[in-house]
Amino acid sequence: MTTFVLDERLACDTQHLADLPLCRALLMLDARYPWVVLVPRREGLSEVFELTTAEQQQLWREASQLGQAMKAAFGGDKVNIATLGNVVSQLHVHVVIRYHEDAVWPAPVWGNGVAEPYSASQLTTMQARLLELINTLDFAR
């Protein structure tokens, strides 16, 4: 396997949470939404179809399980799971909890509004909460 290098923009906009079986889980540094970015730890990929069939299944397993757990934990109205890649071409999947009353509902979060940074204590709390959630999940099945 080649060395995994995280895109510079993703590195600047996120905080590392954990390495799952396939993906690196990153907290998006925008306090407006519970938002995790999953990046398959495979070098040089920009599209889901570039993963093997087994890796595609694992990616969906990780995104789905995490989205379901986050929706329950954060009481969301909707989970947005999406791959875009228009700004950052490195393959990554957004898992975002949405609320009917959030600032940009029903529009997508991408390109709407300005990211609100976490305070130090908010960041610590959100990281701990997400790590606890991640540690309850079994991404192998």
TrEMBL record:
Q: Which InterPro entries match?
A: HIT-like, HIT-like_sf, HIT_Hint
UniProt-recorded Gene Ontology molecular function terms? hydrolase activity
Highest taxon above the source species: Bacteria
Which Pfam families does the record cross-reference, listed alphabetically? HIT (PF01230)
What range(s) does the HIT domain occupy? 36-105
Q: Which UniProt keywords apply?
A: Hydrolase
Q: What is this protein called?
A: Diadenosine tetraphosphate (Ap4A) hydrolase
Its taxonomic placement starts with:
Bacteria, Pseudomonadati, Pseudomonadota, Gammaproteobacteria, Oceanospirillales
